[in-house]
Write a structure and sequence with these properties.
The protein has 495 residues and is α+β, with helices and mostly antiparallel strands. The chain is 36% helix and 23% strand. The strands form 5 sheets. An 8-stranded antiparallel sheet has the order 13-12-9-10-11-14-19-18, sandwiched between helices. The chain has a 5-stranded parallel sheet with strand order 3-2-1-4-5. Helix 4 runs antiparallel to helix 5, helix 7 packs across helix 8 and helix 12 packs antiparallel against helix 13. The structure holds ligand MV4.
C-alpha cells in the first residue's frame, strides 16, 4: 500500500495522515469548496476537490471519492468517522472498484448497522443483553403485552437508530400506544425505517465501550474500555480510559464479550462494542460501532498503540503483532471534546473566526485539531474544533493535567466548551467517579459557569488594583488585566 485517500476532513483527516506518513505511505486529501484552505488539504501530498460545501454534495458522495482514487492512483480509502464510515453500500462500491476500504467488511457493517440484527448476531454467544423483544414490534397490543412482561419503565428504540433518535421511555402501559406511535414516526423520518423494539429501561446507566481489533486471519483482541457517560443529548463530551468503576474481573468479562460480539460477524479492523453498566455493575450489550471512534486517543494513551497504524496493517493483510495477554493498561487518559458551542446558551453552535488560537503543551498533553488562528469554523460540518487529551500515571494526575491544559488553551472569537470541561473536572461527582449518563443534565446549568466567569473577573479586578497601587515602583509596567485571550497571565503581580 503506497498511497491512501482519506475520505474525511478536520482533525481526523490530519490524524490519519500523520500515521500514514510515519508508515511511508503517501496521502490524498479530498475537500469540499468550503475546505479549500483547510489544514488537511495542506498536509496531504495531493488534494482533490470533490464538490460544494454541503456534505451531501461532497464528503458523502461515494462516486466522487472513488473517482478521486482512480485519478490519483490511491489504492485504499480511510473513511475516518462519520460521513461514509459505516455505510455498507459505500463499502461494497469500494470493493467493486478494486479498492481497499480500511475498515470492516460490508457484511459486518450491515449486520451491526441495525440494532436488532446486531443483537441477533450476539445471541450466538452468551452475551448479556437487556430483556426485551428480539424482533421489531408491529402489533401494538402484542407489544403492550410484552412490555408488561418486561416490566415498566421500558424503552422503545429504533432498530436503525443512532444518537438517541426514535428512543422513548415509557413509564406505564397507559402511555405505551402514544409513545410507540411517536417512536415509529420519528424513526421513519430520521432513518426511513420505522422498525422499533422494546428493552427494559436501565434508568441510571454508565456508558462503557470496549475497543476491539480483528485481523483477516481470525485473530481478535480487545484494548480495554472507555468510559463515555459524560454526554449531553447523546453527544459525548468527555471520555476516559480506563473506567474507574470496573474491577479487573468485570473488565475481563466485558472484554471477552466484546471479542465474541466481534467474532459473531468475523470482524476485521478497529471496532467498538457498546455496553451499558447498571448500579450493580451488571453490563448489557447494546450495539457495535464499525469505525474508528472520535475518542480512540484515550485508548492509544493507555495501551501505547497507534490505532490508525493497526487499521492500515490489518487492511494490508498483516496479522496482529500482539496477543491479548501482551496487552496491559498503563496510566489514565481523559479526552475533552472542544466544541464551538456556547455552554451559557444551551450549547448552541457558535460560528465565527478563531481570533486567538493557542493550544496547551507539555507533558501528557495531546491536542488533535484541524484549525489554526485566523480560520473560520465552517457552518456546514460538525462544530468540534479539537480534542484535548491528557494522560497521567493515574486518574488524579490526568484530571489535574486536564485542568492545567484547559487553563492554558487560549481561544477567542468563538465560545467553546472548554469552561464546561473545567467545571466537570472540578466537580466532586466527577472526581469521585460516582457519575452516570445523567451527570450533565443533573449537575450542569449555565449559572455554574457564570459564577466561575464572575470569579475570574473579580480576580482580574483585584490584580488591576494591586498593580495600580504598586504603580510607583513599577513605573513603566502597565497593570496586566485579564482578558479572555490571556487567561493564565491574569494574576501576574509585580512588586
Ligand atoms: C439504553 C439506556 C437505558 N436502558 N437502553 C442511548 C443511545 C444508544 N447508544 C443507547 N442509549 C441508551 N440505551 C436501555 N435499555 C440508556 C441509553 C443512554 C441514554 C439514555 C438517555 C439519556 C442519555 C443516555 C446516554 C447514554 C445512553
Amino acid at each position: 500500500m503506497k498511497k491512501i485517500l482519506i475520505a474525511n476532513r478536520g482533525e481526523i483527516a490530519l490524524r490519519i495522515m500523520r500515521s500514514a506518513k510515519e508508515m511511508g505511505i503517501k496521502t490524498v486529501a479530498v475537500f469540499s469548496e468550503a475546505d479549500r484552505e483547510a489544514l488537511h488539504v495542506r498536509y496531504a501530498d495531493e488534494a482533490i476537490c470533490i464538490g460544494p460545501a454541503p456534505s451531501s454534495q461532497s464528503y458523502l458522495v461515494g462516486e466522487n471519492i472513488i473517482a478521486a482514487c482512480k485519478k490519483t492512483g490511491a489504492e485504499a480509502i480511510h473513511p475516518g468517522y462519520g460521513f461514509l464510515s459505516e455505510n455498507a453500500a459505500f463499502a461494497k462500491m469500494v470493493k467493486a472498484a478494486g479498492l481497499i476500504l480500511i475498515g470492516p467488511t460490508p457484511e459486518a457493517m450491515e449486520i451491526m448497522g441495525n440494532k436488532l440484527s446486531a443483537k441477533a448476531a450476539a445471541l450466538k454467544y452468551n452475551i448479556p443483553m437487556v430483556p426485551g423483544t428480539e424482533e421489531a414490534i408491529t402489533d401494538v397490543e402484542e407489544a403492550k403485552g410484552r412490555a408488561v412482561e418486561v416490566g415498566f419503565p421500558i424503552l422503545i428504540k429504533a432498530a436503525a437508530g443512532g444518537g438517541g433518535k426514535g428512543m422513548r421511555v415509557v413509564n406505564s402501559v397507559a402511555d405505551f400506544e402514544e409513545q410507540m406511535q411517536l417512536a415509529v414516526s420519528e424513526a421513519t423520518s430520521a432513518f426511513g425505517d420505522g422498525s422499533v423494539f422494546i428493552e427494559r429501561y436501565v434508568s441510571s446507566p454508565r456508558h462503557i465501550e470496549i475497543q476491539v481489533l480483528g485481523d483477516t486471519h481470525g485473530n481478535i483482541v480487545h484494548l480495554f474500555e472507555r468510559e463515555c457517560s459524560i454526554q449531553r443529548r447523546h453527544q459525548k463530551v468527555i471520555e476516559e480510559a480506563p473506567s474507574c468503576v470496573l474491577t479487573a474481573a468485570i473488565r475481563e468479562q466485558m472484554g471477552k464479550c466484546a471479542v465474541d460480539v466481534a467474532r459473531a460477524v468475523n470482524y476485521v479492523g478497529a471496532g467498538t462494542v457498546e455496553f451499558i453498566l447498571d448500579e450493580n455493575l451488571d453490563f448489557f450489550f447494546l450495539e457495535m460501532n464499525t469505525r474508528l471512534q472520535v475518542e480512540h486517543p484515550v485508548t492509544e494513551f493507555i495501551t501505547g498503540l497507534d490505532l490508525v497504524k493497526e487499521q492500515i496493517k490489518i487492511a494490508r493483510g498483516e496479522k496482529l503483532s500482539f496477543k491479548q495477554e501482551d496487552l496491559k493498561i498503563n496510566g489514565h487518559a481523559i479526552e475533552l471534546r472542544v466544541y464551538a458551542e456556547d455552554p451559557l446558551n444551551n450549547f448552541l453552535p457558535d460560528i465565527g473566526t478563531l481570533q486567538t488560537y493557542r493550544t496547551p503543551k507539555g507533558n501528557g498533553v495531546r491536542v488533535d485539531d484541524g484549525f489554526e488562528e485566523g480560520m473560520e469554523i465552517p457552518i456546514y460540518y460538525d462544530p468540534m474544533i479539537a480534542k484535548l487529551i491528557t494522560f497521567g500515571k493515574d486518574r488524579e494526575e490526568a484530571i489535574a493535567r486536564m485542568v492545567r491544559a484547559i487553563e492554558e488553551y487560549d481561544i477567542t472569537g468563538i465560545q467553546t466548551t472548554l469552561g464546561f470541561g473545567k467545571f466537570v473536572m472540578q466537580h466532586e461527582v466527577f472526581t469521585s467517579g460516582k457519575f452516570d449518563t445523567h451527570f450533565v443534565s443533573e449537575y450542569f446549568n449555565a449559572d455554574s459557569l457564570k459564577s466561575n466567569a464572575e470569579d475570574e473577573a473579580f480576580i482580574a479586578a483585584i490584580s488591576a488594583v494591586v498593580a495600580l497601587k504598586n504603580k510607583s515602583t513599577i513605573a513603566s509596567q502597565p497593570p496586566v488585566i485579564a482578558t479572555q485571550s490571556n487567561q493564565w497571565r491574569k494574576n501576574r503581580i509585580q512588586l
